[in-house]
Amino acid sequence: MFEGPEKKFQRHIAEYLIREHKYAVLEQDDITDTEYYLAEDHLIAFLKATQKEVLDALEQDYGTDARDEIFKALRD
Predict the structure, then answer these.
(1) Contacts of 17 (CB under 8 A, 6+ apart)
(2) What are the residue ranges of helices labelled H in 22-65?
(3) What whole-number distance in Å separates Cα of residue 37 and Cα of residue 30?
(4) Is pTM, for the whole model, over 0.90?
């Protein structure tokens, strides 16, 4: 199958980001919000890994609704 130069370039960039910067490859099923194309579970995991104190404060303020509040704020 012929792969044009644009597709080759896209694949090259994607492979570089995966190899050098540990980017993850998402599957279609990972996109849980198809209106805004958010991979919600991945975003929450990222927040836990990089901004735990802020996430903890949100959970203290909003309890079990913290996750919903985060995504509501992003959508608004």
Answers:
(1) 23
(2) 40-50, 52-62
(3) 9
(4) no
Q: How far apart are the first and last CA of the chain?
A: 43
Kindly state the tokens that stand for 66. Answer: 């913290």
Cα torsion 61, 46, 37, 32: sign: negative
Q: 51 by DSSP, 3-state: which? A: coil
Taking only the tens of pLDDT, the chain with its 76 residues reads 678 999 999 999 999 999 999 998 999 999 999 999 999 999 999 999 999 999 999 999 999 999 999 999 999 9
